[in-house]
Amino acid sequence: MSTPKVAHLVFDLIRGGTEGQCARVAMGLAQRGLSHRVAVFHKRGFFREAVEAACGPVHEVRIRHLARVATVREIRRLAAWLRNEKIDVLHAWDADAAIFGQFAAQWADVKFMTSRRDLGQIYPKWKLAMMRRADRAAVSVVANAEAVREHFLAQGLPAEKVVVRPNLVDLDEFDARASEPFSAAAALPAGRRLVVVNRLDPEKNTGLLIDALVQVRQVVPAAVLIVAGEGRELPALRAQAAALGVAEAVCFLGEVLDVPSLLRQCEVGALVPNRNEGLSNTILEYMAASLPVLATDCGGNRELVRDGETGCLLPLTASAADLAAVWIEMLNTPAAAAIWGSNGREQVRHHHAPDAVLAAFAGLYDRLKGAPKTATP
Protein backbone atom coordinates (compact mmCIF):
# COMPACT_ATOMS: atom_id res chain seq x y z
CA MET A 1 0.00 0.00 0.00
CA SER A 2 1.36 3.43 -0.98
CA THR A 3 1.97 5.99 1.72
CA PRO A 4 -0.97 8.34 2.32
CA LYS A 5 -1.11 12.00 1.44
CA VAL A 6 -1.86 13.84 4.68
CA ALA A 7 -3.14 17.37 5.21
CA HIS A 8 -2.73 19.07 8.59
CA LEU A 9 -5.25 21.71 9.67
CA VAL A 10 -4.31 24.08 12.51
CA PHE A 11 -5.13 27.63 13.63
CA ASP A 12 -1.80 29.21 12.63
CA LEU A 13 1.92 28.45 12.70
CA ILE A 14 3.19 30.18 15.83
CA ARG A 15 6.12 28.67 17.67
CA GLY A 16 4.52 27.24 20.78
CA GLY A 17 2.03 24.62 21.80
CA THR A 18 -0.14 22.69 19.39
CA GLU A 19 0.74 24.89 16.42
CA GLY A 20 4.44 24.28 16.82
CA GLN A 21 4.00 20.53 17.19
CA CYS A 22 1.80 20.39 14.09
CA ALA A 23 4.42 22.28 12.11
CA ARG A 24 7.24 20.04 13.33
CA VAL A 25 5.38 16.82 12.51
CA ALA A 26 4.36 18.02 9.04
CA MET A 27 7.84 19.32 8.21
CA GLY A 28 9.63 16.34 9.70
CA LEU A 29 7.64 13.81 7.68
CA ALA A 30 7.82 15.90 4.49
CA GLN A 31 11.60 16.12 4.88
CA ARG A 32 11.63 12.31 5.03
CA GLY A 33 10.05 12.13 1.60
CA LEU A 34 6.39 11.75 2.58
CA SER A 35 3.54 13.86 1.22
CA HIS A 36 2.31 16.30 3.85
CA ARG A 37 0.46 19.56 3.25
CA VAL A 38 -0.68 22.21 5.73
CA ALA A 39 -3.78 24.40 5.94
CA VAL A 40 -4.33 27.16 8.48
CA PHE A 41 -6.99 29.64 9.51
CA HIS A 42 -4.40 32.45 9.71
CA LYS A 43 -1.40 32.36 7.39
CA ARG A 44 1.13 33.62 9.90
CA GLY A 45 3.59 32.54 12.56
CA PHE A 46 7.14 31.54 13.39
CA PHE A 47 7.05 28.35 11.29
CA ARG A 48 5.29 29.66 8.18
CA GLU A 49 8.32 29.97 5.90
CA ALA A 50 9.87 26.70 7.07
CA VAL A 51 6.59 24.83 6.59
CA GLU A 52 6.18 26.18 3.07
CA ALA A 53 9.75 25.23 2.22
CA ALA A 54 9.18 21.65 3.38
CA CYS A 55 5.51 21.04 2.59
CA GLY A 56 4.60 23.44 -0.19
CA PRO A 57 2.31 26.49 -0.13
CA VAL A 58 0.16 26.78 2.99
CA HIS A 59 -3.56 26.87 2.24
CA GLU A 60 -5.46 29.54 4.17
CA VAL A 61 -9.01 28.83 5.35
CA ARG A 62 -10.48 32.28 5.89
CA ILE A 63 -13.11 31.39 8.50
CA ARG A 64 -13.65 34.26 10.92
CA HIS A 65 -17.15 33.52 12.26
CA LEU A 66 -19.04 30.40 13.31
CA ALA A 67 -22.28 30.72 11.35
CA ARG A 68 -22.03 32.82 8.20
CA VAL A 69 -22.57 32.13 4.52
CA ALA A 70 -18.87 32.90 4.05
CA THR A 71 -18.02 30.17 6.54
CA VAL A 72 -19.83 27.52 4.50
CA ARG A 73 -18.10 28.81 1.40
CA GLU A 74 -14.68 28.47 3.05
CA ILE A 75 -15.42 24.94 4.23
CA ARG A 76 -16.36 24.00 0.66
CA ARG A 77 -13.18 25.67 -0.61
CA LEU A 78 -11.17 23.59 1.88
CA ALA A 79 -12.95 20.45 0.66
CA ALA A 80 -12.09 21.35 -2.93
CA TRP A 81 -8.45 21.84 -1.95
CA LEU A 82 -8.41 18.41 -0.28
CA ARG A 83 -9.80 16.82 -3.46
CA ASN A 84 -7.44 18.70 -5.76
CA GLU A 85 -4.42 17.71 -3.65
CA LYS A 86 -5.69 14.09 -3.59
CA ILE A 87 -5.47 14.04 0.20
CA ASP A 88 -6.13 10.72 1.93
CA VAL A 89 -6.22 11.89 5.57
CA LEU A 90 -7.08 15.26 7.10
CA HIS A 91 -5.58 15.68 10.58
CA ALA A 92 -7.27 18.43 12.62
CA TRP A 93 -4.90 19.56 15.36
CA ASP A 94 -6.97 21.98 17.45
CA ALA A 95 -10.54 22.86 18.38
CA ASP A 96 -11.34 25.10 15.41
CA ALA A 97 -9.71 22.63 13.04
CA ALA A 98 -11.88 19.83 14.42
CA ILE A 99 -15.09 21.86 14.31
CA PHE A 100 -14.79 22.97 10.69
CA GLY A 101 -12.52 20.26 9.34
CA GLN A 102 -15.04 17.49 9.99
CA PHE A 103 -17.41 18.95 7.38
CA ALA A 104 -14.68 19.56 4.81
CA ALA A 105 -13.45 15.99 5.22
CA GLN A 106 -16.96 14.63 4.77
CA TRP A 107 -17.61 16.71 1.64
CA ALA A 108 -14.20 15.77 0.18
CA ASP A 109 -14.70 12.10 1.12
CA VAL A 110 -11.35 11.81 2.93
CA LYS A 111 -10.43 10.16 6.23
CA PHE A 112 -10.63 12.51 9.19
CA MET A 113 -8.75 12.48 12.48
CA THR A 114 -8.73 14.83 15.47
CA SER A 115 -6.28 15.69 18.22
CA ARG A 116 -6.91 16.14 21.92
CA ARG A 117 -3.98 18.09 23.33
CA ASP A 118 -5.54 19.39 26.53
CA LEU A 119 -8.39 18.46 28.84
CA GLY A 120 -10.95 20.70 27.15
CA GLN A 121 -11.87 22.44 30.40
CA ILE A 122 -11.78 26.02 29.14
CA TYR A 123 -14.13 25.83 26.14
CA PRO A 124 -17.78 26.96 26.05
CA LYS A 125 -20.46 24.28 25.90
CA TRP A 126 -21.23 24.77 22.22
CA LYS A 127 -17.58 24.26 21.29
CA LEU A 128 -17.32 21.14 23.45
CA ALA A 129 -20.39 19.70 21.73
CA MET A 130 -18.94 20.39 18.28
CA MET A 131 -15.60 18.86 19.27
CA ARG A 132 -17.35 15.72 20.54
CA ARG A 133 -19.17 15.49 17.22
CA ALA A 134 -15.84 15.75 15.42
CA ASP A 135 -14.33 13.00 17.57
CA ARG A 136 -17.26 10.72 16.73
CA ALA A 137 -16.76 11.38 13.02
CA ALA A 138 -13.01 10.73 13.21
CA VAL A 139 -11.31 7.45 12.37
CA SER A 140 -8.78 8.21 15.11
CA VAL A 141 -8.29 10.67 17.96
CA VAL A 142 -4.68 11.48 18.85
CA ALA A 143 -3.89 12.44 22.44
CA ASN A 144 -0.47 13.76 23.43
CA ALA A 145 -0.53 12.29 26.96
CA GLU A 146 -1.94 9.27 28.75
CA ALA A 147 -3.73 11.66 31.11
CA VAL A 148 -5.52 13.24 28.16
CA ARG A 149 -6.43 9.82 26.75
CA GLU A 150 -7.84 8.65 30.09
CA HIS A 151 -9.81 11.88 30.49
CA PHE A 152 -11.65 11.41 27.21
CA LEU A 153 -12.11 7.68 27.61
CA ALA A 154 -13.95 8.52 30.84
CA GLN A 155 -16.21 10.78 28.76
CA GLY A 156 -17.15 7.95 26.45
CA LEU A 157 -14.65 7.91 23.59
CA PRO A 158 -14.00 4.30 22.45
CA ALA A 159 -10.64 3.04 23.66
CA GLU A 160 -9.75 1.59 20.26
CA LYS A 161 -10.11 5.02 18.65
CA VAL A 162 -7.78 6.99 20.94
CA VAL A 163 -4.00 6.71 20.50
CA VAL A 164 -1.17 8.57 22.24
CA ARG A 165 1.61 10.29 20.35
CA PRO A 166 3.90 12.42 22.55
CA ASN A 167 5.32 15.81 21.68
CA LEU A 168 8.71 15.84 20.01
CA VAL A 169 11.82 17.85 20.89
CA ASP A 170 14.86 18.08 18.63
CA LEU A 171 17.73 18.44 21.10
CA ASP A 172 20.27 19.31 18.41
CA GLU A 173 18.10 22.18 17.17
CA PHE A 174 17.34 23.22 20.76
CA ASP A 175 21.04 23.32 21.68
CA ALA A 176 21.92 25.33 18.59
CA ARG A 177 19.28 27.92 19.43
CA ALA A 178 20.24 27.91 23.11
CA SER A 179 23.82 28.81 22.19
CA GLU A 180 22.69 32.09 20.59
CA PRO A 181 22.64 35.29 22.68
CA PHE A 182 19.28 35.98 24.30
CA SER A 183 17.69 38.91 22.46
CA ALA A 184 16.32 40.58 25.61
CA ALA A 185 19.25 39.87 27.92
CA ALA A 186 19.46 43.53 28.96
CA ALA A 187 15.93 43.33 30.37
CA LEU A 188 16.68 40.45 32.73
CA PRO A 189 17.14 41.44 36.38
CA ALA A 190 20.16 40.11 38.21
CA GLY A 191 19.48 37.39 40.74
CA ARG A 192 18.43 33.77 41.18
CA ARG A 193 16.04 33.38 38.27
CA LEU A 194 13.00 31.12 38.14
CA VAL A 195 11.31 31.27 34.74
CA VAL A 196 7.75 30.55 33.64
CA VAL A 197 6.89 30.35 29.93
CA ASN A 198 3.16 30.23 29.23
CA ARG A 199 0.18 32.17 28.00
CA LEU A 200 -1.00 34.60 30.62
CA ASP A 201 -4.49 33.10 30.85
CA PRO A 202 -6.38 32.26 34.07
CA GLU A 203 -5.88 28.47 33.89
CA LYS A 204 -2.09 28.91 33.86
CA ASN A 205 -2.32 30.33 37.40
CA THR A 206 0.78 32.51 37.01
CA GLY A 207 -0.29 34.70 39.91
CA LEU A 208 0.46 31.84 42.30
CA LEU A 209 4.15 32.23 41.44
CA ILE A 210 4.03 35.94 42.27
CA ASP A 211 2.40 35.17 45.63
CA ALA A 212 5.08 32.57 46.34
CA LEU A 213 7.89 34.92 45.34
CA VAL A 214 7.06 37.19 48.28
CA GLN A 215 7.80 34.33 50.68
CA VAL A 216 10.82 33.07 48.74
CA ARG A 217 12.53 36.45 48.90
CA GLN A 218 12.29 36.44 52.69
CA VAL A 219 14.73 33.50 52.65
CA VAL A 220 16.53 34.06 49.33
CA PRO A 221 16.49 37.84 48.76
CA ALA A 222 18.10 37.47 45.32
CA ALA A 223 15.22 35.36 43.97
CA VAL A 224 13.49 36.84 40.90
CA LEU A 225 10.71 35.64 38.62
CA ILE A 226 10.98 35.83 34.83
CA VAL A 227 7.61 35.68 33.02
CA ALA A 228 7.69 34.95 29.28
CA GLY A 229 4.34 35.15 27.53
CA GLU A 230 1.41 37.37 26.67
CA GLY A 231 -2.27 37.18 27.50
CA ARG A 232 -5.29 38.81 29.08
CA GLU A 233 -3.99 38.37 32.63
CA LEU A 234 -0.94 40.58 32.09
CA PRO A 235 -2.39 43.83 33.53
CA ALA A 236 -3.70 42.00 36.61
CA LEU A 237 -0.38 40.23 37.14
CA ARG A 238 1.55 43.51 36.93
CA ALA A 239 -0.83 45.04 39.46
CA GLN A 240 -0.46 42.02 41.74
CA ALA A 241 3.34 42.26 41.73
CA ALA A 242 3.17 45.99 42.51
CA ALA A 243 0.63 45.51 45.31
CA LEU A 244 2.81 42.84 46.93
CA GLY A 245 5.93 44.97 46.72
CA VAL A 246 7.84 42.68 44.34
CA ALA A 247 7.43 44.60 41.08
CA GLU A 248 11.20 45.02 40.77
CA ALA A 249 11.67 41.26 41.18
CA VAL A 250 9.19 40.21 38.48
CA CYS A 251 10.26 40.67 34.87
CA PHE A 252 7.48 40.51 32.25
CA LEU A 253 9.16 39.84 28.92
CA GLY A 254 6.08 39.47 26.73
CA GLU A 255 6.24 36.99 23.87
CA VAL A 256 9.65 35.36 23.56
CA LEU A 257 10.67 33.54 20.38
CA ASP A 258 14.19 32.59 21.47
CA VAL A 259 13.09 30.57 24.48
CA PRO A 260 16.07 28.14 24.47
CA SER A 261 18.54 31.01 24.92
CA LEU A 262 16.34 32.51 27.66
CA LEU A 263 16.33 29.24 29.59
CA ARG A 264 20.13 29.23 29.67
CA GLN A 265 19.90 32.37 31.83
CA CYS A 266 17.71 30.72 34.49
CA GLU A 267 18.02 28.18 37.33
CA VAL A 268 14.52 26.70 37.65
CA GLY A 269 11.55 26.29 35.31
CA ALA A 270 7.98 26.44 36.60
CA LEU A 271 4.51 25.66 35.28
CA VAL A 272 1.63 25.65 37.76
CA PRO A 273 -1.71 25.36 35.89
CA ASN A 274 -4.87 24.58 37.80
CA ARG A 275 -6.74 22.94 34.88
CA ASN A 276 -6.75 21.98 31.20
CA GLU A 277 -3.09 21.00 30.76
CA GLY A 278 -2.09 18.38 28.18
CA LEU A 279 1.54 17.43 27.61
CA SER A 280 3.44 20.65 28.13
CA ASN A 281 5.92 21.84 25.50
CA THR A 282 7.11 24.33 28.09
CA ILE A 283 8.12 21.61 30.54
CA LEU A 284 9.82 19.67 27.76
CA GLU A 285 11.89 22.75 26.92
CA TYR A 286 12.82 23.23 30.57
CA MET A 287 14.00 19.62 30.62
CA ALA A 288 15.88 20.03 27.34
CA ALA A 289 17.66 22.97 28.98
CA SER A 290 18.55 20.79 32.00
CA LEU A 291 16.46 22.89 34.35
CA PRO A 292 14.76 21.31 37.37
CA VAL A 293 11.01 21.68 37.03
CA LEU A 294 8.49 22.95 39.57
CA ALA A 295 4.98 21.98 38.43
CA THR A 296 1.48 21.21 39.59
CA ASP A 297 -0.09 17.80 39.04
CA CYS A 298 -2.33 18.85 36.17
CA GLY A 299 -3.00 16.82 33.04
CA GLY A 300 0.14 15.35 31.53
CA ASN A 301 2.57 17.11 33.89
CA ARG A 302 2.99 13.95 35.98
CA GLU A 303 4.18 12.10 32.85
CA LEU A 304 7.08 14.53 32.53
CA VAL A 305 7.90 15.64 36.07
CA ARG A 306 8.93 12.64 38.18
CA ASP A 307 8.83 13.94 41.72
CA GLY A 308 12.31 13.91 43.26
CA GLU A 309 13.94 12.84 39.98
CA THR A 310 13.34 15.56 37.38
CA GLY A 311 11.76 18.15 39.64
CA CYS A 312 8.93 18.57 42.10
CA LEU A 313 5.28 17.82 41.37
CA LEU A 314 2.91 19.65 43.70
CA PRO A 315 -0.80 18.89 44.24
CA LEU A 316 -3.25 20.80 42.07
CA THR A 317 -4.41 22.63 45.20
CA ALA A 318 -0.92 23.68 46.29
CA SER A 319 -0.72 26.99 48.12
CA ALA A 320 1.78 29.79 47.64
CA ALA A 321 3.52 28.59 50.81
CA ASP A 322 3.83 25.06 49.38
CA LEU A 323 5.28 26.47 46.19
CA ALA A 324 7.67 28.77 48.04
CA ALA A 325 9.05 25.91 50.15
CA VAL A 326 10.03 23.89 47.06
CA TRP A 327 11.33 26.94 45.22
CA ILE A 328 13.60 27.75 48.17
CA GLU A 329 14.80 24.15 48.35
CA MET A 330 15.75 24.16 44.67
CA LEU A 331 17.69 27.41 45.01
CA ASN A 332 19.43 26.28 48.21
CA THR A 333 20.43 22.81 46.94
CA PRO A 334 21.93 23.51 43.50
CA ALA A 335 23.71 20.13 43.33
CA ALA A 336 20.44 18.22 43.69
CA ALA A 337 18.71 20.60 41.29
CA ALA A 338 21.44 19.97 38.72
CA ILE A 339 20.85 16.20 38.96
CA TRP A 340 17.11 16.72 38.43
CA GLY A 341 17.88 18.85 35.38
CA SER A 342 20.23 16.24 33.95
CA ASN A 343 17.66 13.50 34.49
CA GLY A 344 15.04 15.58 32.71
CA ARG A 345 17.23 16.07 29.67
CA GLU A 346 17.85 12.34 29.42
CA GLN A 347 14.11 11.73 29.64
CA VAL A 348 13.58 14.05 26.66
CA ARG A 349 16.34 12.28 24.75
CA HIS A 350 14.82 8.84 25.29
CA HIS A 351 11.10 9.56 24.91
CA HIS A 352 10.68 12.62 22.70
CA ALA A 353 13.34 12.31 19.99
CA PRO A 354 12.09 13.32 16.52
CA ASP A 355 12.91 10.05 14.75
CA ALA A 356 10.83 7.94 17.13
CA VAL A 357 7.88 10.35 17.37
CA LEU A 358 7.74 10.95 13.61
CA ALA A 359 7.92 7.21 12.91
CA ALA A 360 4.97 6.69 15.26
CA PHE A 361 2.93 9.36 13.44
CA ALA A 362 3.87 7.94 10.04
CA GLY A 363 2.77 4.48 11.14
CA LEU A 364 -0.55 5.86 12.33
CA TYR A 365 -1.23 7.65 9.04
CA ASP A 366 -0.34 4.48 7.11
CA ARG A 367 -2.84 2.44 9.11
CA LEU A 368 -5.56 5.05 8.72
CA LYS A 369 -5.33 5.05 4.93
CA GLY A 370 -6.49 1.48 4.88
CA ALA A 371 -9.08 1.83 7.64
CA PRO A 372 -12.80 2.07 6.89
CA LYS A 373 -14.29 5.55 7.09
CA THR A 374 -16.28 6.40 10.19
CA ALA A 375 -19.68 7.77 9.19
CA THR A 376 -20.45 11.30 10.25
CA PRO A 377 -23.16 11.20 12.96
Model description:
With 377 residues, this protein is of the alpha/beta class. The protein has 2 domains: 6-168 and 353-369, Glycogen Phosphorylase B (Rossmann fold); 172-351, 3-Layer(aba) Sandwich (Rossmann fold), CATH 3.40.50.2000. It contains 15 helices and 13 strands. It has helices spanning 17-30, 48-55, 69-84, 95-108, 125-137, 146-154, 171-178, 207-219, 234-243, 259-263, 281-288, 301-304, 320-332, 334-351, 354-369, and strands at 6-10, 36-40, 59-60, 89-92, 111-116, 140-143, 162-164, 192-197, 223-228, 250-254, 268-271, 293-296, 311-314. The strands form 2 sheets. It has a 7-stranded parallel beta sheet with strand order 3-2-1-4-5-6-7, sandwiched between helices. Strand 2, helix 2 (48-55) and strand 3 form a beta-alpha-beta unit. 46% of the residues are buried. The mean pLDDT is 96.
Helix and strand arrangement:
Layout: E1 6-10, H1 17-30, E2 36-40, H2 48-55, E3 59-60, H3 69-84, E4 89-92, H4 95-108, E5 111-116, H5 125-137, E6 140-143, H6 146-154, E7 162-164, H7 171-178, E8 192-197, H8 207-219, E9 223-228, H9 234-243, E10 250-254, H10 259-263, E11 268-271, H11 281-288, E12 293-296, H12 301-304, E13 311-314, H13 320-332, H14 334-351, H15 354-369
Parallel strand pairs: 1-2, 1-4, 2-3, 4-5, 5-6, 6-7, 8-9, 8-11, 9-10, 11-12, 12-13
Helix pairs in contact: 1-2, 3-4, 4-5, 8-13, 11-14
